[in-house]
C-alpha cells in the first residue's frame, strides 16, 4: 500500500448475480492493477478496489460501461474509504447474511424507457401513472414480506391481465418478474384526474398527492400567498420547503448546478438535492425562507411526470403531515389528518407498505453526502468490517432512525423524524417492528443513547432486553468511521448542537481519541452556561449573552438572564460548538434565533458570501474568550458580518488542525450536525490533507443525529 492509495467501495443492486459479474470485475481490476475483492452480498454485489486514485476511478467508470450484457444495475452506492492495504484481488465467498436480506431494494425513479412509454400515444401504457419495469418503480414501499415476490407486496390485490402476465413471465421482456408490473387494465388507478389536479395548482390551491412513500403536499412554488397559506396550515414557520421541478433545464433557471449535482438529481434515488440559488427571480421567497439553499428534486414516479407535464412549473413538494408528525400513508388517514391543510386530494389505490419521506442529499468535498436517508436509499445496508452481535439500535431523539445489525451488515431504517409527538413515537415503534419482522430479526441487545429522557432511550429501557448505552458523540464519530471503513485508532471530531455528556455537561464540541470501541476525550470547547437550558437552543441570543456576561463585557440582556448565568440557576454548562455558532450569529447581527434546528448556523455560513478571508480569530485550545472579545470588537467597529463569519469559521478549522497535530494521529473523522456546514467541512478537510492527514466525512449516512443509530449498532457490546 502506498500513501496515495485510494480505496473505493461500490455496492451494486439489481440483476448482478449469476450473470458473470464477479469474473468481469476480477478481470477489470487485475487489468488495471488494482487490489481488493468482490462478493455476492445480500444487497447484490459489493466490490472494493484499492490503488492510485485515477485508476480506481477509471475502474468505476468502466464497471458501468463494460458490465456483462445480462446485468442490470439498479442502484450503485459508492464510498471512498480508508485504505486497507489489500494484497492482490480476490473473489470472496458470499456473506452468510446474504440470503436473508436479499431482495429488498430501495424505490427507484422512473427509467428512461418507461418515461418514453408514458408519453407514447401508441403505447398501451400511454399516460398510465403506475408504469414501471424491472429497472424502476417502487420496491421498499410495497414490500410486505420477503422473499420479494408479488404476493408479498401491496400489489397482491391486483391480478395481472393477459398482457401483463406475458411480460412478467417472459425472460426476454424488460418486465420479467417486475413485481409491481401493472397497466390501465389491471393495475392501480388514481381518483382525481391529472388535469383537475393541475388546475387546482394553477388556481393556487393546496394539493395532497399520494406518492411513493406516502402523501406529499404540493403548491405552486411561484405563488407567495399559497406558500404562506401552506406554512400556516402546516404550522411550519420557517423551515425551508423542498421543491420539485419539471426538468433539469428549469432547475438550471433557478440554481447553480454542477455536473455532480446533475448526476445526483438524475440518479435512481432522485433525492432532494440542496442547491445554491443563482439569484434569478421566480420562486416565492417563502419557499426557502432564511435557508441559503434551495432543495430541488426531479419527478421520480410516472404520476409526478404526468402532473409536471400538465403543470410545467416548480412546485413546493413537502411531506404530507402537520409539523412534527409522521408522513401520512393511507387514504383514510390522509383524508382525516390532512383535511384541514389540503384543498384537493389526488389519491390512488395502491397501498403504501411503510412511510418513506423524500431523501435529502448534497455535495460535500465533491462527493454525495446524504442528509436525510429515506426513499431511494433505505433499506440498503452499510457494510462493517467484522461480525456484529444481533443489535437493535434505537438512535437519538431528533431526526431519529433505527438500525439492526445482521452479521457484517447494518440495516438502517428510513428517516423516522423527531420523537416529540405521540404520533412520531408510534411511528418509531412501527419502524422497529417493521425492520425486525422484514428481516426475521430477533435482537439480543438493544443500544441507545445515554440521555435518560430521549423517547428512544425510554423505549430501550422498557424493552426488557439487555441495554447498551452509547455516548452520543462517540456514536457520531463511530458511524462516520464505520461507513468509511476506518478501523483502528483515529481522532474523532464530534461537534453538534447538544448531546448527553459523561460529566453532567451538555457536550457538543468534542475531540476523541478513539480506538477499538473506546474513546478518550482529549479536548473540548471551554464550557459556558446556557441560561434557560432548552430555551437557549431556540433563542441563540441567550448563548451570546451568557458569553458576554462570563467575560464581564457589557450586555443589554434582560436582568433575569444575567442572574441565571451569574448564579448558575437553570443554566446547564455546555461545550457545544452548535451553541457557539448561535452566539456568534447573534453577536454579528446575522440571526438571533433558531426557528428550526441549525438555522442560525446556516445563516452564518451563508453570510460568508463574498467576504472570504484566510484570517482567523484566536481560539487557543478551544478557549472562546479571545475569540468572543474580538468578535465584539469587530462588531463595535462595524465590521462586515460576512468577514466576522469567515474569521469565526476559520478559527474552528484552525483549532481542528491544531488538535490533530497535537494528537499525532493520521486519520481524522469529522461527524455531528455541525459538519453539515460545507464551508467548515471543506476548509478543514483541505487544511488537514495539506498537513498529511487522511480525512473522513459522511457520505451514505447523515452527519446529523440520523446517523446515531449506525454508531450505536457498531459500538454496542453486552456489559
Ligand atoms: Zn422502467
Ligand atoms: Zn395489465
Ligand atoms: Fe448529535
> How many domains comprise the coordinates?
5
Number of helices: 24
Rg, please?
25 Å
Give the overall form: globular
The CATH class label of the largest domain is Alpha Beta
Which structural class best describes the helix and strand composition?
alpha/beta
Bound molecules: zinc ion, fe (iii) ion
Distance between the termini: 37 Å
The parts where pLDDT drops under 50 for at least 5 residues are none
**Helix residue percentage:** 25-40%
Mean pLDDT: 94
Task: Note the beta-strand portion.
Answer: 15-25%
Determine the CATH topology of the largest domain.
Nucleotidyltransferase, domain 5
What is the β-strand count?
28
Structural summary, described in words:
With 719 residues, this protein is an alpha/beta fold. The chain folds into 5 domains: 91 residues, Alpha-Beta Plaits (2-Layer Sandwich), CATH 3.30.70.100; 81 residues, DHBP synthase; 167 residues, Alpha-Beta Complex (DHBP synthase), CATH 3.90.870; 118 residues, Nucleotidyltransferase, domain 5, CATH 3.30.420.360; 169 residues, Nucleotidyltransferase, domain 5, CATH 3.30.420.40. The protein contains 24 helices and 28 strands. Strands 6, 7, 8, 9, 10, 11, 12, 13, 14 and 15 form a 10-stranded mixed sheet that branches. Strand 22 and strand 23 form a beta hairpin. Helix 19 crosses helix 20. The longest helix is centred in the C-terminal third of the chain and has 23 residues. The model has no long low-confidence stretch (mean pLDDT 94).
Amino acid at each position: 500500500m502506498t500513501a496515495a492509495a485510494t480505496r473505493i467501495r461500490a455496492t451494486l443492486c439489481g440483476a448482478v448475480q449469476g450473470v458473470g459479474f464477479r469474473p468481469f470485475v476480477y478481470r477489470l481490476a487485475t487489468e488495471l492493477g488494482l487490489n481488493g475483492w468482490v462478493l455476492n452480498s445480500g444487497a447484490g454485489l459489493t466490490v472494493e478496489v484499492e490503488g492510485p486514485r485515477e485508476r480506481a476511478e477509471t475502474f468505476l467508470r468502466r464497471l458501468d460501461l463494460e458490465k456483462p450484457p445480462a446485468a442490470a444495475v439498479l442502484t450503485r452506492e459508492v464510498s471512498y474509504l480508508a485504505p486497507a492495504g489489500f494484497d492482490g484481488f480476490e473473489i470472496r465467498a458470499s456473506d452468510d447474511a446474504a440470503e436473508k436480506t436479499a431482495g429488498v431494494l430501495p424505490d427507484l425513479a422512473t427509467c428512461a424507457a418507461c418515461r418514453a412509454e408514458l408519453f407514447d400515444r401508441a403505447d398501451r401504457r400511454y399516460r398510465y401513472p403506475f408504469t414501471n419495469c424491472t429497472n424502476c418503480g417502487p420496491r421498499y414501499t410495497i414490500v410486505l414480506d420477503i422473499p420479494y415476490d408479488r404476493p408479498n407486496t401491496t400489489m397482491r390485490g391486483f391480478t395481472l391481465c393477459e398482457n401483463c402476465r406475458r411480460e412478467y413471465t417472459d425472460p426476454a421482456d424488460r418486465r420479467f418478474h417486475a413485481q409491481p408490473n401493472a397497466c390501465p387494465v389491471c393495475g392501480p388507478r388514481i381518483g382525481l384526474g391529472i388535469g383537475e389536479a393541475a388546475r387546482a395548482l394553477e388556481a393556487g390551491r393546496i394539493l395532497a398527492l399520494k406518492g411513493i412513500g406516502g402523501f406529499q403536499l404540493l403548491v405552486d412554488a411561484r405563488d407567495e400567498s399559497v406558500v404562506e397559506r401552506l406554512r400556516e396550515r402546516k404550522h411550519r414557520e420557517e423551515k425551508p420547503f423542498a421543491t420539485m421541478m419539471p426538468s433539469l433545464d428549469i432547475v438550471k433557471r433557478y440554481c447553480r448546478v454542477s455536473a455532480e449535482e446533475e448526476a445526483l438529481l438524475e440518479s435512481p434515488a432522485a433525492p432532494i438535492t440542496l442547491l445554491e440559488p443563482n439569484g434569478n427571480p421566480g420562486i416565492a421567497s417563502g419557499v426557502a425562507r432564511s435557508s441559503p439553499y434551495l432543495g430541488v428534486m426531479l419527478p421520480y414516479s410516472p404520476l409526478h411526470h404526468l402532473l409536471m407535464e400538465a403543470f410545467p412549473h416548480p412546485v413546493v413538494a413537502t411531506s404530507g403531515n402537520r409539523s412534527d408528525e409522521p408522513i401520512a400513508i393511507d387514504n383514510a388517514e390522509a383524508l382525516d389528518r390532512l383535511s384541514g391543510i389540503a384543498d384537493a386530494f389526488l389519491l390512488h389505490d395502491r397501498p403504501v407498505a411503510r412511510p418513506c419521506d423524500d431523501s435529502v442529499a448534497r455535495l460535500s468535498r465533491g462527493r454525495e453526502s446524504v442528509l436525510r436517508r429515506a426513499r431511494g436509499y433505505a433499506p440498503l445496508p452499510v457494510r462493517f468490517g467484522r461480525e456484529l452481535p444481533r443489535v437493535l439500535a434505537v438512535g437519538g431523539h431528533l431526526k431519529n432512525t433505527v438500525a439492526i445489525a445482521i452479521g457484517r451488515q447494518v440495516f438502517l431504517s428510513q428517516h423516522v423524524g423527531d420523537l416529540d409527538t405521540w404520533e412520531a413515537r408510534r411511528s418509531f415503534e412501527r419502524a422497529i417492528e417493521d425492520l425486525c419482522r422484514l428481516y426475521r430479526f430477533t435482537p439480543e441487545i438493544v443500544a441507545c443513547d445515554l440521555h435518560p429522557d430521549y423517547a428512544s432511550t425510554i423505549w430501550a429501557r422498557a424493552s426488557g432486553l439487555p441495554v447498551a448505552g452509547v455516548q452520543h458523540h462517540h456514536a457520531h464519530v463511530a458511524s462516520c468511521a464505520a461507513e468509511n471503513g476506518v478501523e483502528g485508532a483515529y481522532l474523532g471530531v464530534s461537534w453538534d448542537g447538544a448531546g448527553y455528556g459523561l460529566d453532567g455537561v451538555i457536550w457538543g464540541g468534542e475531540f476523541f481519541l478513539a480506538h477499538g470501541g473506546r474513546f478518550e476525550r482529549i479536548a473540548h470547547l471551554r464550557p459556558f452556561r446556557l441560561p434557560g437550558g432548552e430555551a437557549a437552543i431556540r433563542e441563540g441570543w441567550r448563548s451570546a449573552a451568557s458569553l458576554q456576561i462570563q467575560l464581564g463585557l457589557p450586555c443589554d440582556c434582560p436582568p433575569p438572564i444575567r442572574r441565571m448565568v451569574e448564579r448558575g440557576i437553570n443554566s446547564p454548562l455546555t461545550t457545544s460548538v452548535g451553541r457557539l455558532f448561535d452566539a456568534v450569529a447573534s453577536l454579528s447581527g446575522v440571526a438571533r434565533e433558531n426557528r428550526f434546528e441549525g438555522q442560525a448556523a446556516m445563516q452564518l455560513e451563508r453570510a460568508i458570501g463574498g467576504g472570504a478571508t484566510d484570517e482567523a480569530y484566536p481560539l487557543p485550545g478551544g478557549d472562546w474568550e479571545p475569540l468572543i472579545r474580538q468578535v465584539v470588537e469587530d462588531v463595535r467597529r462595524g465590521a462586515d458580518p460576512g468577514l466576522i463569519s469567515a474569521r469565526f469559521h476559520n478559527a474552528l478549522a484552525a483549532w481542528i488542525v491544531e488538535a490533530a497535530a497535537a494528537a499525532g494521529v493520521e486519520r481524522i473523522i469529522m461527524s455531528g450536525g455541525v459538519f453539515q456546514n460545507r464551508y467548515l467541512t471543506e476548509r478543514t478537510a483541505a487544511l488537514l490533507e495539506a498537513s498529511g492527514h487522511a480525512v473522513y466525512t459522511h457520505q451514505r449516512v447523515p452527519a446529523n443525529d440520523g446517523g446515531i443509530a449506525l454508531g450505536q449498532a457498531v459500538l454496542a457490546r453486552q456489559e
